[in-house]
Amino acid sequence: MQGKKKDSYSQSFLSLCTLQHLQTRREQRQLSLLGKNKETHLSLWAIDELVSPIASQTEFHFSKWSDQPEFMFALVYKITQDFIVGIEDILQPLIDRARLVSYSAKEAWVSAMILLISGFLAKRVFPSLADKYNEKTIKLEAMSSWLHLIDLIIAFDKRMQSLVTSESGFFLVESLRFEGFSKFWSVLLIFSDRPDWLKIWSKTELKDAVRKLREEVRSENSWLINKKQGIGIGSHKDSEQYVLSTTEDGKSPIIADFSLKIAWKMIERCENLPSTVLRVQFIRSTAGRFLRYFSDILVLRFNNSEVDPDDDEALMRLCGCINAASYCVSKLEDWSDEANFIEMKISESKSKKNVTEDAHNYSCFFWEEINNFAELETNWVMEVISVLLQQFETLSWDYLQNKELFQETRISGSMDVHVSGDIVEALDSLRSRLDVIKLGINPKDFLDLWRSVADGLDHFIFRSIFMNDVKFCDKGVEQFDADMRSLFLIFQPYCLRPEAFFPCIRDSLELLKMVKEERKHLLGLLSKNERRANCLRLYGILRVSDVEAETILRNRGFTV
Q1: What is the pLDDT of residue 475?
Q2: Please, which residues have CB within 8 angstroms of residue 449's CB and are 6 or more apart in sequence?
Q3: Which of 20, 167, 170, 401 reaches 20 to 30 Å from 310, CA-CA?
Q4: What are phi and psi of 555, to 5 degrees?
């Protein structure tokens, strides 16, 4: 426009901006009297009027591209990009003259063009796709078209937002930049008034994610340990880098990382939904259900793998399931610490009137998923521990029932003391199983596992021998000490003082090794029934009770 035509348009534009400024001030005064605040809206009347004839002309082209929405987005983006410089250079000074504080011609132009295509999609495209989705014969085709359209919308939103964030966009007021992006600058605004469409979208996303996971699960290579882990935590915008924020020590299988990447991608796809409530609904319906589905797959794989301590491959499969559950717990805890998820959890908590969940758990967005994976991890570790202890009990049965082994009366020191033959197989099997498990399981769970195994063996051996009225002579004490030292050596690679994790056996050996005078003195103190526990502490006996100690001392014989 040149000359009078330009002056006339500028005057009309300025007049409309001035009118909007007066109306805005009037509304603010009215709301101020009521003690309310008016939300800042990025729409400019003058820009809306400028876009109105463009909408009429583009609708003709849109109607021909209902099955090719990519052309619609390309056209709208081209129009927006071609005029955005002129809009800012020519119209922004007029907006400033009208005293419309914090209003941007560039923002209003982009927002209006997004609303232009959103209106057509809501009126012509989405209703057609929704109808197709409800027809069983063409449901798969409708799902594919729906996902394709969402992909185009997300890419289009990013391109349109990039037009605003360039150059002067970096100096926008923070509240306008971020609230405006989510509320006015996304085609996903369509879903704010159509919960039925949001439900279809979430179902489609979930079915597509489950399909991808099923294909991946069929390959045994997906259950191998992910050697590429170890990438540091990056921006939440970079899904791959964010999801891979772990260490190689986690030993999680590839399938766990693959599943979390799918879940995170679904979360990212809804980040431009116009309200926190909608984002919560979408994530619960997609990523939340998908993670529960993945946990069911882990349960199925664990149950299909027999817990056979003699089968190295079976043990490695079980360790893979444990590692996957542990990895998911760690990553979901990291996600829940993100500001966006904290905000969503607060919003969700306020929207629920009757809250019955534990207050601590309820503060975490993924508390249900975390608890689910953590429970699986704990139960599976305990099941492996139980199998190891049962195998040790089976292999050491003859040893524990051989009371004569500890009642021999040969002179001490007459010959070297070797490990009892009846317990060698049990010790060797335990050592080899722990070595295999250590290679396959993550360090955190292995630490809990070997300590629990040690504690279980401590109680089992103590109850089986000392509480079974077994008599000990000098040679028997030496034999038992040699056998237990061999047991302690199995755990030597995992700690400096393995005997510290066998307190009952350690105390029993201390009592058995007492000389005759010490034994008589301690029995005398215990017989007085006064401060019996304190008497034991004086001799360094901390775990064995006074009754148990008295039983052990009375069953201790001496070689004549």
Answers
A1: 87
A2: 381, 384, 385, 437, 441
A3: 401
A4: -90, 5
Q: Are 100 and 122 in contact (CB under 8 A)?
A: no
Residue corresponding to tokens 């699986």: 376
Burial of residue 342 (number of CB atoms within 10 Å: 0-12, 13-18, 19+): middle
Residues of the chain with pLDDT under 50: 168-183, 228-247, 354-361, 411-414, 560
Is 373:333 a contact under the CB 8 Å cutoff? no
What token pair was written down for 450?
């070997």
What's the pLDDT at 533?
Answer: 66
In 3D, which of 168, 153, 192 has the Cα closest to residue 109?
168
Q: What DSSP string describes 320-372?
A: HHHHHHHHHHHHHHHHHTSHHHHHHHHHHHHH-S---S-HHHHTSTTHHHHHH
Q: For residue 327, give the nearest of 243, 446, 411 by alpha carbon.
A: 243
3-state secondary structure string across 494-521: HCCCHHHHCHHHHHHHHHHCCCHHHHHH
- What is the per-residue pLDDT for 471? 86
Among 315, 289, 111, which Cα is nearest to 202's? 289
Q: For residue 151, which amino acid is it?
A: D
Q: By C-alpha distance, which of 65, 211, 204 is closest to 148?
A: 204
Tell me the residue type at 86: G
What's the whole-model pTM score?
0.83
Per the CB < 8 A criterion, the answer to whether 504 and 462 are in contact is yes
- Quick one: how far is CA 119 from the chain centroid? 38
Burial of 226 (0-12, 13-18, 19+ CB in 10 A): buried
Q: What pLDDT is recorded for position 126?
A: 94
Q: Provide DSSP, 36-91.
A: --PPP----HHHHHHHHHHHHHHHHHHHHTTT-HHHHHHHHHHHHHHHHHHIIIII
Residues near 515 by beta carbon (within 8 Å), at least 6 away in sequence = none
Report pLDDT for 555. Answer: 83
Please give the pLDDT value at position 353.
Answer: 56
- Name residues whose C-beta falls within 8 Å of residue 279's C-beta, 6 or more positions apart in sequence: 270, 271, 273, 344
